[in-house]
Amino acid sequence: MDIRQATIDDLLGMQNANLLNLPENYTFKYYLYHALTWPELSYVAVDPRGRIVGYILAKMEEEPSEEPCGHVTSISVLRPYRRLGLANKLMKQSQEAMVAHYNAHHITLHVRKSNRAAISLYRDTLGFEVHAMEKSYYADGEDAYGMRYIFTGSKAINDVERIKTS
Amino acid sequence: MSAAAKQRQLPNKEAGLFKELLTQYELKQYKKGIKAADTILKKFPNHGETLALKALTLHASLPFPITVGALPKQEEAEQMARTAVKKDITSHITWHVLGIIAKTKKDWDEASRAFAMARKQDNDNIPLIRDSISLYLHTRQYSSAVAGRHHYLTLRPQIRSSWLGLMIAHHLNGDIEEALEVYDGLMGCIKTDGASGPEKAQTALHVVRMCIEAGEYKDGLERLERFLRNDVLSARGEATQLKAEMLAKVGRLQEAEDTYRALLEQNSDNLEYYRGFLRTRGLDITETLEAEAVAKTLHALDLFAESYPRSAAPRRLTLDIAQGEAFRDRARTYLINGLERGVPSLFVDVKGVYQDATKMAVVGEIMEELVAELEKNASLHNDATIAPPTTLLWAYYYLALHLSHPSHPNPSPDRSLKLLGIALEHTPTLPELYMAKAMVLKRAGDPYGAAVAMEEARSLDLQDRFLNGKAAKYWLRAGDVKKAEDLVSLFTKKDTSAVSDLTDLQCLWFLTEEGDSYRRNGNLAMALKRYQALVNVFQDYEDDQYDFHTYCMRRMTFSAYMALMRYEDQLRSHPGYFRAAIAAIEIYLKIHDDPTLTEESISPEEEAERKKAAKKAQKAEQKARKAAHASGGDSGKKEDQPVPDEDPTGSKLLKTETPLEDALKLFAPLEHLASERVETWTIAYEIDIRRGRYLGALKCLSEAYAVDAEDPKLHGQILNFRRKLASATDLPEPVKAAIEAVFPSILPTETSPEEFNASFLSRHSTSPRHILGAAQGLLEIKRAIDPVPSDTLAEVIAILNQITTDNVPPAVPIMLEAVDFLRSAGAAPEQVDTFRKRCTDRAPLAWVLATEDEQKRRKTQGMDMDDEGGANGNGNGNVKADV
């Protein structure tokens, strides 16, 4: 599968994949908002016929905070394309873009408390940690785990360390 | 002071109230505002600007979405705004208000005109200019947008975005040179750029892109390298990709190659990086390569496969490139690797090579060998290792899908089902096996059996929305709308119906599939309703861009914005729109041909069903109302409800008196956006010929001919045109002359139509679609003879029968179409039945070809899916014998 940065032309395919896979869905305009604010951060996995079979929709936190912080709005891979490590690859690409283009210090995401497969992917494969529990985060009342991964090699940390050591 | 201005001036007291009115509008104190307006209007009922502001305030006070109770007020506000303009036609306020109201109605053209008029009255009004620029951009009036931007820049030259906005306007207007000049002008006159890092990066990237678009690679490269050096741009991703492309363009090939290597270090799964790398060595893998080039390409990709063992991309690419024995060896290794890792996607991954029939056959042979070896417990690696049982499981799975693939020359669904049966005995809990079974049955023409199988897959993992959606889709294919809606509702909002939630969420697949399902069931009204809902979603997609005309200037995401504008320009070339538009047009054509279809003739059962549905909808609405009430929202009163759907059953759509005009509206975007598709022209022919527009119809034939001269639908239409032409006696001379000049290049005059048809058939004697086309062509020829010869149907059937012969792949959808065609051609029920039987003999699992009664009986008597490979496992080749 081809893995590349998402373009405007990919957004409807991403919306379609999202509607097929996940219970949290968004209208087209929300995809536009991502692509037209942080064009470098969202990625797609594309099959040989050009169909979008996996995506990561990502952004930077807009709330002012001490360090720039990335956030995964949605990530999923169509069931027939699982076990290829696509989610892992999509996540890595988006994370590296967050650091390179926005100097991100860490990245956050929300996951359903019951979604053990996803939690294990984020924690065991991608190194995320649970840092918060959000009660009734989802529309159906389910709780969410707030998960976070701190970029160790990020420029932001290097800067901080440079200041500390100087 | 002019007369108009004098009339506009209010006495002190009222002037004060007028100011208050403005403030109250801005503070959203709408009630107070309206009161103030009324006080002024009492004394000065003809004061246009007050009337305009009252209209604006009233309009802003209305709930969204609009409720039943507020509807009259909305109309009142709109009417008031128009009256205000009439009362004071030279006021910028009255025009501005008219523009704002048109904008909220998404009537972009009217809004754009009103804003232009407002600006005429007040040229330097900044908010006015901003809005009108957005509207010019939105309605693609680029030269007016440039003029607006120019004007804005003279008023606000100290703001960076005034310059960059002008740059983008020039770019959209097709003048990149001017755009770059504006950018350089800005950079030349500011000392420090106050933009943030990401803002500078977005601007820089766009400047480079403009250079590339203008073909100025050297300039672009210089700028890009400077941006990279100064840390304006990050080397990650796009910037480096643009650099590689430009280096290749200016012939610095070694550097280009190194740059692509650097990109692959960043992302070794990006196919374009591999393609770009190979291009720098003169190897274009999008074209057919010579033997020597193939060897070089494979060698390069093999090295990458070693460097990036975790990336499938280079190994998968070699399967596209390699030929003959090299392909066989590589495919075998690739397949074994995938089977051993138990990757469910192996089939969807490898089937990309099936475009090449030879490769498809080779893959089939390899898989047969592998299955045989695995069944014997033999090693796949010429050593003592024995593959785990799951390898065989995945091999069965692969082979089952392979044998039922649509491009398989001789599919054997029976064998596929047998293989899956063995696999399921071994692992009865793997949803993928049931999904495969469903797919095989669907392709074999058994949508009901397929839905039952998909339901089993779903039941094994109820939390998985993908399986839920697939099961719903399969029920829709099987004609069970209710079951499908019940299923999807498990994952939609609880306070509204599944259909309305999925429509709000712009779920294209569901709208299309449910429309198709209704259409197959003969409910044309609901089919139209779903297709039109999808068409409306595309209108929303188009309207969505409006806010971004200003947003992107603020965020400086210029490249993404340009991509948006270009994307929206061709939005309706999307296959989702295309498919729904064609389906809806076909319904409109049907209505035109048979207006009795618009008269409802529903059976008592349907009537009862409909009442039940209406009750259910009412209940859902009440529930939603209660929920809203509980959450402190609207009160439960009827007039506080959103305006209900005024055509819940689609009957208004169906009862159209202008079906051809409705069809034309849907067709309009396709003419330019899908001109490369032959169906665009064959459907347009059907519209034009019904409108009696012979020249238009002929143009459609010519266009279709240019796309695919051998298209079977076109073939029938050519002969249809010939017949229609012969009976059109009142054509004006110039039209006749024009047709005579063009038509012979499509239907040669030197051969007889019979020969034309026979030669078409002999050219395509193994293609089911073309055989059907020839049968349709023959009917046209015969019908052109007066009186129609008595052997017509017999000859048509003789051609159709070829669809069912052994050397023609059994294509169930075409068989179904052929049955319909035969019926509409006036064949007797027995003749249709005999043909149907021939089809089911050739495709024994094709329950979709059985009569309604047969299908019903099968469903009520239950169906044991594990019965010997499905519906017709006893192998007597007759669907009905089984029931």
UniProtKB/TrEMBL annotation, chain A:
A Pfam family this chain is assigned to: Acetyltransf_1
Protein name from the UniProt record: Putative ard1 family protein
An annotated Gene Ontology molecular function: protein N-terminal-serine acetyltransferase activity
GO cellular component, one term: NatA complex
Database matches in InterPro entries: Acyl_CoA_acyltransferase, Ard1-like, GNAT_dom
Domain (N-acetyltransferase) ranges: 1-152
PROSITE patterns in the record: GNAT
Keywords for the protein's UniProt record, in alphabetical order: Acyltransferase, Transferase
Family statement drawn from the similarity comment of this UniProt entry: Belongs to the acetyltransferase family. ARD1 subfamily.
Gene3D superfamilies: 3.40.630.30
Organism encoding this protein: Naematelia encephala
Keyword Amino-acid biosynthesis assigned: no
UniProtKB/TrEMBL annotation, chain B:
Name of a matching Pfam family: NatA_aux_su
InterPro entries: NatA_aux_su, TPR-like_helical_dom_sf, TPR_rpt
Keywords attached to this entry: Receptor, Repeat, TPR repeat
Cellular-component GO terms for this entry: NatA complex
Record SMART domains: TPR (SM00028)
Region spans: Disordered: 599-655, 852-883
UniProt name for this protein: NMDA receptor-regulated protein 1-domain-containing protein
Domain of life of the source: Eukaryota
